[in-house]
Specification:
The protein is mostly helical. It is 79% helix and 0% strand. It contains seven helices and no strands. Helix 3 runs antiparallel to helix 4.
Length: 156
């Protein structure tokens, strides 16, 4: 774990350096792991730290298998999330189209003088303002419903 301070991912090196210092100063692996988990503050980091804690508690013989299984599980989670984000983009585009369609029709209608006269009255302006407000609210609701939840830290 301490070697990750020099060989690990560039962005995580300071975090693992802090872990190595804590472990050297305190001499207690569990406490150093708790500090590492707080420093990482990430759901994936929580899983890795807890996996290391369990592996150490049972002797560490299955550490390689545990890390392989964990990486496989994390890749599967990422694959599913990517697919959900892809499908969500279709929903977002459909929401945009649903909001834009009436305005495109109104734009085409604006080429006819009867439509311009009808919407040029105070009542027509009110209808356009109410329609615009409805479109804004509907778009916000569609975006809220279609939003994917952020991954939570359940092991924090």
């Amino acid at each position: 774990m301490s070697a990750l301070a020099s060989r690990g991912p560039e962005t995580l090196r300071p975090t693992f350096s802090h872990f190595a210092r804590n472990y050297q100063v305190l001499g207690r692996f569990e406490v150093a792991l708790d500090v590492l988990k707080d420093d990482l503050a990430d759901p994936v980091g929580d899983r890795v730290v807890e996996g290391l804690r369990v592996a150490r508690a049972v002797g560490g013989g299955d550490l390689g298998r545990l890390l392989r299984n964990l990486s496989s599980h994390l890749r599967d989670d990422e694959r599913v999330r990517s697919e959900l984000e892809s499908r969500q983009s279709w929903a977002v585009n459909a929401a945009r189209l649903a909001v834009a369609a009436p305005w495109a029709v109104l734009l085409m209608m604006s080429t006819q003088t009867d439509a311009v006269d009808a919407f040029g009255t105070p009542g027509g302006v009110v209808v356009l303002l109410v329609a615009a407000a409805c479109c804004v609210v509907a778009y916000a609701v569609m975006m809220r419903i279609g939003r994917l939840p952020a991954e939570r830290r359940v092991l924090a």
